[in-house]
Amino acid sequence: MESLIGHTLHNRYHVQRLLSRQVGRRTFLATDLETQLPVVVKVLLFGPEFTWDDLKLFEREAETLKALDHPAIPRYLDSFDISTDLGQGFALVQSYIDAMSLEVAAQAGRRFSETELVDIARQLLTILVYLHEHAPAVIHRDIKPSNVLFSDRSGHRAGDLYLIDFGSVQTVADKKNGTITIVGSYGYIPLEQFTGQTVPASDLYSLGMTLVYLIAGKHPADLSQVNGRVQFDSRAISKRFSRWLEKMTYLQLDKRFESAKVALAALESQDGSYCSYPNLRPENSQIEVLRERDRIAIKILQPLFATSIGFLSFIAVSFLATMTISASGALIMTTGILLVMYVIQKLPFYSVITIERNGKIRKFSKISKIQWDVQSLAVRNIHLLTYNPGYTFDRYINEHGHTIRGEVAISPKLTILVGRVECVVGHSLLSHAELWWLGQELSDFLDLELQVVYSTPKLPENREHY
């Protein structure tokens, strides 16, 4: 097929040189004689190695590129039948992008900083958001370093990125009931793709493995996996980015980010938390969730009056203010104390829960750098994670069979049961949405199902009954 070099196809495209070759297919650089611009011409020949799946994928690539319009994706220009000395075939013409692939750069010894890696991830996720939200959704299925081009490197950016090759590489696997076509490149595709169950999150796995290749300098197929996690030397990147990358490359589909938009939101989270469910976080929430591979911390802004120090501060301020009014001579002495109490009232107060995998769960309160009320329990004793959505009722039958009347409101509550100890997450002022979000984060980290319960409340003794 290389004999096409030097020939003009369709009386318009003069073939210059070979760019790449695959079984039954070739990709050439050509010149459009009408515009004098370089173009890419992909050729599929109906030879001995031809299969109908080849034609199906080739036509699908042409139809897909026709429907897409994105600056980081090659543009469809033309398609036509061809006749050569080697037989009949089909040609697809698309715009040419003069840029180097990530694979070529890595093989030449190029190493990318974390800032550049994050930029690569952000740009590719932006492209995937466009593809996955297209109608109908487009799943690339073959994201890998050789299919990502970059150019115009500037500052700490990797440069402008482009995603190419919407035709996909194929491998045919024999099955008892015939054959199935597996599209993609080994090492970069997830398990579900081997069974033909490709979903948008499959592209996230491929993108994540592309980043792993750039970090480790090894083909993903040469890296081991333990409990669904790829093992590589991650010392060159931060723990937060490592945790995000781990979420991208889980073998299990249900443990990955559910979409490119969610993965992008986690990558760009303002507090740098890289939480697993940023889409569930209420927009104005003041809760911070910081996750690493083996640690999670939940930091909740707490109403000061909800704590003993807040209440005592309020009583002290009120008392001293009264004494100051009644004894003007003590004004100077009490001013300093009042000022201290006022400052305490204004300082942000936090309730913090930290859980270290294979370690301990700690719960404490914090003002500035001061912390107290530390509760420390062994993580191995955690056996239940529950969420009570809260409810209201106006009557209740107690254990004696009496009907108790009067409205009773049960606040929503998120609880971790550690042995016989109940560790409550948050406070009664948190919204349902905030508690549900925290419940999903903890469920994912602890690998425990979040149980929704409606526990029986303890009611006041003096309720009217009959």
From TrEMBL:
Domain of life: Bacteria
Source organism of the structure: Phormidium tenue NIES-30
Alphabetized Pfam families for the sequence: Pkinase
Annotated GO MF terms: ATP binding; protein serine/threonine kinase activity
The keyword Acyltransferase is annotated on this UniProt entry: no
Residues that span the membrane, as ranges: 300-321, 327-344
Record-annotated Protein kinase domain positions: 13-280
Name of this protein: Protein kinase domain-containing protein
Listed InterPro entries: Kinase-like_dom_sf, Prot_kinase_dom, Ser/Thr_kinase_AS
Keywords from the named record: ATP-binding, Membrane, Nucleotide-binding, Transmembrane, Transmembrane helix
